[in-house]
Amino acid sequence: MFSVYGRMTALSGRRDELINVLLDGFRAGGDGSGLLTYSINTVVDDPDAIWLTQLWIDKDAHDATTRSEPVAAVTRRLPQLLARQPEGLYGHAVHVHGQTAES
To answer: What number of other Cβ atoms are within 10 A of residue 71's Cβ?
Structure first.
C-alpha cells in the first residue's frame, strides 16, 4: 500500500474552506480510485493548519487518480487558499489495522 502524508496551511481564517476543497477532491476521484482511506486533521496549536493522510492500494492508483481531470480541476482551486507551499511525504504502509502489509 502507498501512503501520503501532508501538511497544509491555509490563509488566515480559510482553513474550513481548504478542508471543503480537499473533500471535493476526494469525491472527484470516485469510488474506484484505489484510495482506501484518508484523514483530514486540524492542528491544536495552529488554527490555519491541517494534516492530511491517505492510504492507497498502490502508487499507480494514486498517480492515475491525482492526474485525472476531475481531481486536477479541484486541485487547481487549492493555491488561492494556501499561505505557503504544502509539505508532504510519500511512503509504504507497513502495518494497517492489525494487518502487516506485504513488501
So the answer is: 20
Q: To which H or E segment does residue 4 belong?
A: strand 2-9
Tell me which H or E stretch contains 6: strand 2-9
C-alpha cell, 78: 487549492
Beta bridge partners of 92: 2
Using an 8 Å Cβ cutoff, are 68 and 25 in contact?
no
* Enclosing H/E stretch for 20: helix 15-29
Closest CA to 46 of 74, 77, 75, 87: 87
What confidence tens digit (pLDDT) does each residue in 55-64 have?
A: 999 999 999 9
DSSP codes joined into one string, 25-68 = HHHHH-TTSSEEEEEEEEETTEEEEEEEEEEES-HHHHHHHHHS
Distance separating alpha carbons of residues 87 and 96, to the nearest angstrom: 23
pTM of the model: 0.88
- Contact predicate 11/32, CB 8 Å: no
